[in-house]
Write a structure and sequence with these properties.
Layout: E1 13-17, H1 20-31, E2 37-40, H2 46-50, E3 57-61, H3 69-84, E4 90-94, H4 108-118, E5 123-126, E6 134-137, E7 140-145, E8 148-151, H5 171-176, E9 183-186, H6 188-192, H7 196-205, E10 210-213, H8 218-230, E11 236-240, H9 243-254, E12 274-277, H10 282-293, E13 297-300, H11 309-328, E14 333-336, H12 344-356, H13 360-382, E15 386-390, H14 392-400, E16 406-414, E17 417-423, E18 433-437, H15 446-452
Parallel strand pairs: 1-3, 1-4, 2-3, 4-11, 5-10, 5-11, 9-10, 12-14, 12-15, 13-14, 15-18
Antiparallel strand pairs: 2-16, 6-7, 7-8, 16-17, 17-18
Length: 456
Amino acid sequence: MSALRPLPAGPLVAFYGDDFTGSSASMEALAFAGLETVLFLAPPTPERLAAFRHCRGIGIAGVARSRSPAWMDEHLLPIFAGLKALGAPILHYKVCSTFDSAPHIGSIGRAAEIGARLFEGWIPLVVGEPGMGRFQSFGHLFALSHGRGYRLDRHPVMARHPVTPMDEADLGRHLARQTDLPIGLVDFVAMKRGAGDAALDAALAEGAAIVSIDVMDAQTLEEAGRLLWQRAGRPRFTIGSQGVEAALVAHWRAAGLLPAAPAMASPGAVAQIAVVSGSVSPVTARQIATAQERGFAPIRLAAERAVDAQAWESEIETATHRALAALAEGQSPLVFSAQGPDDPAVARLREAVAVAGLTIEAVNDRIGAALGTILDRVLREARLTRAVISGGDTSSHAAAELGIDALTAIAPMAPGAPLCRAHAPEPERDGLELVLKGGQVGGDDVFDAVRRGGAS
């Protein structure tokens, strides 16, 4: 076994998230382990980066999950090159913990091929993360949903995902549809027997360029981190969920390289918050229903009107006025475009898009931007200090409307969705407390938990 590799000075992990909410999950894993981390909402200028030179984790929240391979070819190489220039030992392409991807959109395989142009050596793939309810066994991914475990292709949300429905739980087979790079496996049996290195050597000897590493529990999480850290070159291009950071932290802590996690102070409650949601997940549907039971004011945004510019502007104005009226009455507004995959609004939107001759991607971009516009106007007029954006694809477009350029984690709210401090050039927006929440993330009471300042 090789000698213990120390933690160098400077950044330890540089990461690019293929969607906004997933990016905050990686930030959370590092920050709450005591490693200061910043998440930029776009590639930073050298001057902006200098303000966070002390950070041990540096990330960029991206949108590759909703983009084509051609878009990736154009945009990811310079982003990866910029992150590589930071000198971090680990460069992480952060994907969703449910591996959302397809050959035509959000291709993880294409991202691997682009990374392989810049980085030498094998590419670790770590997706399992028990803390998020994600478990990988013999290369197959399982995920919890509402307290029950499902193989990914039978998961009630992922099997019905509106953009990338999952019909294959074997991540190697799923990824092989997206790339010709050979894919190997280090399974949990070898890891638990102390044969992780031998299994990795065997996979590499067989020509694997990508090696998927099982994670089932705390032991295999720590062992995955050891393989990442001890067997990585400098720098190492890595693909995976926030399990990458969780595994590294577990290994660093077990090896005595990182002290125990510091205690986190509660951010405290606020009287009112604003929430916008573009998610169609059934998880978010339950969260919207629970929020309404807890006194939130539900405000439906008629998404089918997004196909017409004039009608859409009117819809945005109406929703904004209703949100401000709810605040005036002491409620917290929750503006949403759909409540679950079976909401008739989903079918109405698809029909409107087809009639208008537009693409669903373009219209979804409009919806996300509109939710951000509504939130921006509400925050300015009501001077709220805390907000939530729900929906992975929604978050990227909505956050862009707020004028913020970076986030740092304040406190845990739900696994993968921390309460963050927003950083912005504009003093009025600098210091906003914001949660970016994926559609499948959080308990039923997550919106009320953010208002209370307590974990969901």
